[in-house]
Amino acid sequence: METVALTHSAALARLGSALSDGTRVRILLALREAPAIPSDLAEALGVSRQVMSNQLACLRGCGLVEGVREGRSTWYRLSDPQIAAALEEMLRLVLFVDPACCAGESCTC
């Protein structure tokens, strides 16, 4: 039972880490809609291709996205349909966020 808790804790921590970056969140939300190639994602999100490459590598490492080779291109998609469902559920949450809380480095939560 303790091993399962540790596995779940590690998985949630990995998800939290992935969601802690605004660019990664935007990538996940975009891929929730449809698979995409990195250059198109970079353009749509207004980031450089290098930033996109780094963020996709992080999301791949977390097991949240996967690359599918098609000819000379690689399409990225969410690695599991349950990720899209989880994102949808999180978007349905209604939260009150104190604007003074968690503002940059001064977070005391």
TrEMBL record:
Molecular-function annotations in GO: cadmium ion sensor activity; DNA binding; DNA-binding transcription factor activity; lead ion binding
Q: Which SUPFAM superfamilies match?
A: Winged helix' DNA-binding domain
CDD domains in the record, alphabetically? HTH_ARSR (cd00090)
Give start and end of each HTH arsR-type domain.
4-98
- Name its GO BP terms in alphabetical order: response to cadmium ion; response to lead ion
Stored InterPro entries: ArsR-like_HTH, HTH_ArsR_DNA-bd_dom, HTH_Metal-responsive_Reg, WH-like_DNA-bd_sf, WH_DNA-bd_sf
NCBIfam families with a match to the protein in the record:
HTH_metalloreg
Q: What's the protein here called?
A: ArsR family transcriptional regulator
